[in-house]
Amino acid sequence: MTHTIPDINLVPLSIRQNRQRRKLIFRWLGALGVTSLAVGIPGVYLGGNAALSDPMMGTQIERVRGQLSANQTEIPRLQSRISVLEEKLKTLDLVRNRIDWQELFAQIVNASDQQIHFTALQALGGGVEGTDPLQVSVTGIATTQTQARSFVVKLEAAGLFDRVELMRTSREELNEQEIIEFQIHAYIGEPDGGTP
Description:
Elements: H1 13-52, H2 55-97, H3 101-111, E1 117-125, E2 134-142, H4 145-157, E3 163-174, E4 177-188
């Protein structure tokens, strides 16, 4: 005779039923999660591809590529044009800064009031752009010392020069008449070493 041992479970029936329910709920939630992943990922992929394959998107991409290509071919031409304009600007700066010799010497002649006779006019410096210091040397004759000094004062009053100096005067005789020979240095700017 076989005897079977009865199963004895000391856990109350209500707790065992709750555990059984929990297992079923977790299995159901797990199956739902796996199903969502299995269906959702391909769905997102297919939906994304559908949006990317939209004919309007392709047209926009082609239009942007065309604009990019056109801009890239224009960049070298624009850089070349900028270089040309920069060179023109440098040339205009040179012309704008250059010394107007005609005006400069006209002012010197006007300051003489035709009482002074010039024997030499010489300009040193100024540079190509008119930015370097400039020294104008005026040698001439006057009938009196007063006329020579008056000429210096008028040159100073003209406002063309930063400094005007009467370098020398001497009495000379010309055709049995006494004259005053003089030399004036007029400066625009100062050389780096101070007084020119």
